[in-house]
Amino acid sequence: MNHIVEAIGNTPLVKLNNVTDGIKGTILAKVEYFNPGNSVKDRMALKMIEDAEKAGLLKPGGTIIEGTSGNTGMGLALAAIAKGYKCIFTMSDKQSKEKQDILRAVGAEVIVCPTNVAPDDPRSYYSVARKLNQEIPNSIYPNQYDNPSNSAAHYETTGPELWQQTEGKITHYAAGVGTGGTICGTAKYLKEQNPNIVTVGLDTYGSVFKKYKETGIFDENEIYPYKTEGIGEDILPKNVNFDLIDLFIKVSDKDAALMTRRLAKEEGLFVGWSCGSAVYGALEYAKEHLKEDDTMVIVLPDHGTRYLGKIYNDDWMREQGWL
Ligand code: PMP
């Protein structure tokens, strides 16, 4: 390998054995922390940069500016090192301190912005990223929410990997929804192979997706602060194609946190918080709907190290009243 970014993709698919009591069928986890940046977002970060280069938008010595909860930033930073670009990331202040430190460790500049302001507020991490992009010459703002390269990365890699790894046996596919790139890119590929595959999107309380899917209404009352990192939104990203997501299930911060800790202890999967959301919600669905011959794949987006100060810290868990 000439560079670590060549190690992106081809992550293992691992059977869940102990958190699946009372469920018929096979539950497999796509363990995305095996990517070099330790998350699923490496896939789309590299693709967004390569597509920007091909389109002539990113030139040597350029700067990549993005609003990111951390994982996209890590992927972009690795790709930037491989290709000689600078990175500036804006992040909301609810994200783990670890995520900021990790991004600084790989050479990025990080600007922390307030979480509880509207997306169009000039202080929001979306607005600050956009403004920097206007001010800094030879910079690009990939905008993972609306950039089609995001879904395309999963259409080209995650989808085919799952189809091959399950030898076409996959019947259900579940993933948390943030930008929507992971679930929709993968689902598009899988549904082209077998239109009967059911896709389950995991959402949070405090996010607009589920209600929008069920009613077509963008309901601002659905928006309130929550703690799970990386999934749920207060906007409708262009990468969320509601036609490709058959249903949404909302998972609470607490249920997600407790399931994440079970995954570490009972499956040996030391994964991030949204992995607990994905597994908790997907298993709720599986309990009712899965049959003996069904195979469900659940995406586990990132690694547990990024949450040592939160869900893997017993004092923090007690402060939340969750232990
Ligand atoms: N979990 C984590 C930890 C994430 O960082 C993200 C990315 N926002 C997701 C889940 C959701 O992935 P996507 O943006 O592809 O919908």
From TrEMBL:
Entry coiled-coil feature ranges: none
BP-aspect Gene Ontology terms: cysteine biosynthetic process from serine
Presence of keyword Lyase: yes
Signal peptide: none
Pfam families reported for this sequence: PALP (PF00291)
One function term, GO molecular function aspect: cystathionine beta-synthase activity
Keywords, in A-Z order: Lyase, Pyridoxal phosphate
Enzyme class per UniProt: lyase
Every Tryptophan synthase beta chain-like PALP domain range: 6-302
UniProt record similarity statement: Belongs to the cysteine synthase/cystathionine beta-synthase family.
Native organism: Hymenobacter luteus
Protein name, per record: Cystathionine beta-synthase
PANTHER family: CYSTATHIONINE BETA-SYNTHASE (PTHR10314)
Required cofactor names: pyridoxal 5'-phosphate
EC numbers, comma separated: 4.2.1.22
